[in-house]
Amino acid sequence: MRIKVGVIFGGATVEHEVSIISAIQAIENINQEKYEVIPIYIDKDRQWYTGKLLTDISLYQDFNDLKRYAKPVVLYNKKGKFYLQSLGFFKRNVAEIDIAFPIVHGNNAEDGTLAGYLDTIGIPYVGSHVLGAAMGQDKVVMKQVLDAADLPIVKYTWFYDTEYQENAERITKNIKKLGFPVIVKPATLGSSVGIVYVKEEEKLGAAIREAMEYDTKIVVEKAVENLVEVNESVLGDYEYQSLSAIEEVMSTDEFLTYKDKYLGNGKGTKKTAGSKGMASADRIIPARISEKLQEEVKRISIETFRALNLSGLCRIDFLIDKKNEKVYVNEPNTIPGSLSFYLWEPTGKSYTELLDDMITLAIKDYRKKMKKVTSFDTNILTNFEGVKGIKGVKGMKSKLK
Q1: Do residues 268 and 275 make contact, with C-beta atoms less than 8 angstroms apart?
Q2: Which residues pair with 320 in a beta bridge?
Q3: Which of 129-143, 198-212, 380-394 has the lowest mean pLDDT?
Q4: What does the H/E/C string look like for the chain?
Q5: Which CATH number is correct for 136-152+225-369, 3.90.105.10, 3.40.1380.10, 3.40.50.720, 3.30.470.20?
Q6: DSSP-derived pairing of the beta strands 48-50 and 35-42
Q7: What pLDDT is recorded for position 290?
Q8: Dihedral sign for Cα atoms in the order 101, 106, 110, 114
Q9: Yes or no: is domain 156-222 CATH 3.40.640.10?
Q10: Is a pLDDT exceeding 70 seen at residue 147?
């Protein structure tokens, strides 16, 4: 009997379309003899849908038309089994799922939001859990944790949009201490959305205002000069990690842009309709860096993976000052575009094998979690007589002692 895998994608995020590309790529490459795939699409209004036609990416050009063939559903747990249930007065189970496979990117999805929902339902799922996902998405918290773990990051400052609106002069003064050029980023987005490279103070305000269109928290980093951008993918959990090849990513700008990542010249397959997602970016594998820097990237990748409580598969992006041979962690991607399958192919691992490994890791993780104590059989409220104001609370406390 095949394992039923619910592939979840889309969501209320600026990386919505990127998620669709990544998910369809994965669905096309999953082992159909071992797994039965149930596509689950979350539209930009947060409504969940399922239906076989959701695997055809060309239909997303006009989803209102596709809705005629897709069913709106909710995911729920019934006595340890997980179902997609139709909406309306006459509810029925549309599909059963054994495990969820989130392939989502960005805020309201990859940031731990979806992981928390799946944890609440109790369904096993692929990838990092709430804490790792949340830290991986928030660039400020991520930097604070990596700094505490003594892992290399570039100099930075951060602030909330309201702080800038109230005292732009103070914020600007702090940024000037970093020294130009700097990079202005929304703190919790990915795919290079809203990022601006700023060479001079006169253009700083416009860059900050652009970032504030996407996020309430802004991070400004000292730009690395003599820059080489490299990426490493990590597969594993807290016990064991394996590493992919290291890629050197080529950019037409000062840093790798959204256009570089997703609007490349890849023709794609018939289903992916002209885009290969991150697979379309220009890259050199293996990266043209010294053996010493390669070993440094590999060591820091594992330490970053563990420090941020990541699991499943992620891609960790690095900035290298090639002149000074200095490596900096840029950011982790807990659900990277195209799941970084192209980084594993040079190691001899096909995309199909990579997907199988990810699902196997998730099942292993779920089984370990089920062996832990999560609740007590006893109910301390059995003989409880009710709470009556402060006295009732005090009475409750005395009963619990």
Answers
A1: yes
A2: 228, 327
A3: 380-394
A4: CCEEEEEEEECCCCCHHHHHHHHHHHHHHCCCCCEEEEEEEECCCCCEEECHHHHCHHHHHHHHHHCCCCEEEEEEEECCEEEEEECCCCCCEEEEECEEEECCCCCCCCCCHHHHHHHHHCCCECCCCHHHHHHHHCHHHHHHHHHHCCCCCCCEEEEEHHHHHHCHHHHHHHHHHHCCCEEEEECCCCCCCCCEEECCHHHHHHHHHHHHCCCCEEEEEECCCCEEEEEEEEEECCCCEEEEEEEEECCCCCCCCHHHHHCCCCCCCCCCCCCCHHHHCCEECCCCCCHHHHHHHHHHHHHHHHHCCCCEEEEEEEEEECCCCEEEEEEEECCCHHHHHHHHHHHCCCHHHHHHHHHHHHHHHHHHHHCCCCCCCCCCCCCCCCCCHHHHHHHHHHHHC
A5: 3.30.470.20
A6: antiparallel
A7: 96
A8: negative
A9: no
A10: yes
Range 316-341 average pLDDT: 96
CATH architecture of 3-126: 3-Layer(aba) Sandwich (3.40)
Q: Which token pair is 192? A: 């290079």
Amino acid at 53: L
pTM of the model: 0.88
